[in-house]
Design brief:
This protein is mainly α. It is built from seven helices and no strands.
Length: 216
């Protein structure tokens, strides 16, 4: 019945692409591993210039990279180092995941859509979690970072599966995540800024008490 709906295949491809791009905003290599595994097993088609995703070397490489990335986010200081490069890498990975669903529309429109929709979605979610981790470090001394890391990994896994199994739901969840980060991100940043301001004020007060001459 829905086979005769105009442009429905492109809409479904867009939903899948947005879902996978959102997943790369959580974790870069986990969605790529899921797509590589699914295409290698023949569960999803991979045509055109993206057939390399279904190859065994890609499956092994993304699997190793996925495990290293997941474990690295539980190591103090290393997680912040990864945050410095996660946004551009997530943008690139999100663009690739989105473009893989539009291999038959031409190179320019394919990558233009991929950079805007896929890259933009991945960058928004990745930057949101980077800000959340920074606020967690400042307010909990880094003890809450493991919770953030676990949430990211779980989110990447759920979004990857949803994108392939229920693309419409994945699309809706991705939009909700972006809106949530835009709204909550500002609140987190304000609390983070106020926390640093209050900390600076307390430091100045202590120095003033210990060195009364500063008040002269």
């Amino acid at each position: 019945m829905l086979d005769h709906v105009p442009y429905l295949p492109y809409a479904i491809s867009a939903f899948i692409g947005i879902g996978l791009a959102a997943a790369t905003g959580f974790r870069i290599f986990l969605p790529m591993f899921v797509v590589s595994l699914a295409s290698y097993m023949g569960w999803i088609p991979m045509n055109g210039s993206f057939e390399w995703l279904s190859g065994l070397p890609t499956l092994i490489a993304t699997g190793i990279a996925m495990m290293v990335e997941i474990l690295a986010y539980y190591i103090p200081f290393v997680d912040h180092l990864l945050d410095t490069i996660s946004i551009p890498l997530a943008t690139l990975a999100g663009s690739v995941m989105f473009a893989s669903q539009f291999a038959d529309i031409g190179t320019f429109p394919q990558w233009a859509l991929a950079l805007i929709a896929g890259g933009g979605t991945a960058a928004a979610i990745s930057s949101g979690f980077a800000g959340t981790r920074a606020a967690s470090t400042a307010t909990t001394g880094g003890f809450g970072n493991s919770v953030v890391a676990s949430t990211e990994t779980a989110g990447a896994g759920i979004m990857s599966v949803l994108a392939l199994a229920a693309p419409v739901i994945a699309f809706i969840v991705a939009i909700i995540c972006i809106i949530a980060f835009l709204v909550l991100g500002r609140k987190i940043w304000r609390k983070f800024r106020n926390f640093n301001t209050n900390k600076s004020v307390k430091t100045i007060d202590v120095e003033s008490v210990e060195n009364p001459r500063h008040l002269e």
